[in-house]
Amino acid sequence: MSAITTHVLDTSAGRPAAGITVTLARRGDDGRWATVAEATTDADGRVADLLGDAAIKQAEMYRLRFALGEYFGRHRTPAFYPYADVVFTTRPGQHYHVPLLVSPFGYSTYRGQ
After folding, report:
1. What domains lie within the chain, and their CATH numbers?
2. Using CA atoms, how far apart are residues 94 and 22, in angstroms rounded to an integer?
3. What is the bridge-based pairing of β-strands 96-103 and 4-10?
């Protein structure tokens, strides 16, 4: 199982948010973000394999970027946020599930199981 997973739900439509581009980046010692992986949410709104089998070996800062404008644009729904960035810090040997609840004019996140 990937050390970082996500699940996106479209609360305005009451369904999983399929087809959202999700980009995972890691913050380097120089403060710059380097893309680690990119995936698209499946029919259930999930991305289960962002890091593959790689384990997190040290405390690091990651950013998940969700392309909300593209998603809502495909549904012909005007949206306020073109994307949502979720930045979080990891510790070695743990799993991080980061759910995102979206609507055209807001989003919410938390650390899931």
Report:
1. 4-109 (2.60.40.180)
2. 21
3. parallel
